[in-house]
Design brief:
This protein has about 300 residues and is of the alpha/beta class. It contains six helices and 20 strands. The longest helix has 14 residues.
């Protein structure tokens, strides 16, 4: 199992879900062991954000990375859907240049990002892929009854449960388990869109959030159910999107995880708290490679170039 980057550079343009800012995002190949590096190229000098759990400083409704500069903190918001797509395709090394403070939301899922990555092509690199293997149980929780944990497992499995008191959730699954592979990720969760309640929009916009949101890039819920004319893409789209978010949040570790992630009503804040607790405990994990043996996570092989 080798490290992966893109075969070609590719660009996309879009609007940020919360800021409403337009941006151009350029995805470019990166050398072995570079990792995933965001770069705010609209700033002078450009500010680099090598992904790390410790860069996540804001988690209200999205995952936002922050880097201190001599003048003021630089931010990039809503990175979780792109990070989720990178995990799904198995990209290890990549430069992400962006001209604003938020990743474009596209259609509210990871599917457009996956299309970009596959269109650029994936190139295998001459170095083994690194994995973070969970060695012992790690648990976090908050005072609202939400919790998340890692458990040892030779593979990558995610189990997520939700609990919303709303008519739209009466006919949908409250929990889901995904045994991770590219095929399972693409099929089960990549097209699941973000969602929100229409009654919250006025408050969100008063706090400069949701300024780019609409029914073209999110599922809207009123008091009775789903507002979108086309309805849901899948009857279990809500919990599937929560798993999509978790895949992206956990990929902030910098490498794919070998272990089991189990969570109940977790969000970006708890996902990041769990990841920080893991990486700051040297006894809880080890970094491993599978240069000769068959790895316990399988990635699709379409459009891969040697």
């Amino acid at each position: 199992m080798k490290q992966r980057t893109l075969a070609n550079t590719i660009k996309a343009k879009g609007v940020g879900l919360h800021t409403g800012h337009q941006s151009v995002m350029t995805l470019s190949p990166a050398p072995v062991d570079t990792g995933i590096v965001f770069r705010r190229v609209d700033l002078s000098p450009a500010v680099e954000f090598p992904v790390s759990p410790d860069l996540v400083r804001e988690t209200m409704l999205c995952t936002t990375i922050v880097k201190d500069t001599p003048t003021r903190p630089a931010k990039i918001a809503t990175i979780e859907h792109l990070m989720s797509a990178l995990a799904g395709v198995g990209i290890d090394n990549l430069y992400i240049d962006i001209t604003a403070d938020e990743v474009p939301i596209m259609d509210g899922s990871a599917s457009h990002f996956i299309f970009l990555l596959q269109s650029a092509g994936v190139r295998l690199q001459e170095a083994p892929k690194h994995f973070i293997r969970i060695k012992r149980h790690i648990h976090v929780q908050n005072d609202k009854g939400s919790w998340a944990e890692f458990r040892p497992l030779e593979g990558f499995r995610l189990t997520f449960s939700i609990d919303f008191d709303h008519p739209a959730f009466d006919q949908t699954a409250e929990s889901m388990t995904l045994d991770f592979s590219s095929t399972a990720y693409f099929k089960e969760v990549s097209r699941a869109r973000t969602f929100g309640f229409m009654k919250d929009m006025e408050l969100l916009r008063a706090n400069n959030l949701g300024l780019g949101a609409g029914l073209h890039n999110a599922i809207g819920l009123d008091d009775d159910g789903v507002v979108n004319q086309e309805g849901l893409r899948d009857k279990d789209e809500f919990v599937r999107h929560k798993i999509l978010d978790a895949v992206g949040d956990l990929y902030m570790a910098g490498h794919p995880i070998l272990g089991e992630f189990v969570a109940h009503k977790s969000g970006h804040a708890l996902n990041n708290e769990l990841l920080r607790k893991l990486v700051h405990d040297p006894d809880a994990f080890e970094v491993v490679t599978f240069s000769e043996d068959e790895p316990p996570i399988h990635y699709g092989s379409s459009k891969i170039l040697m």
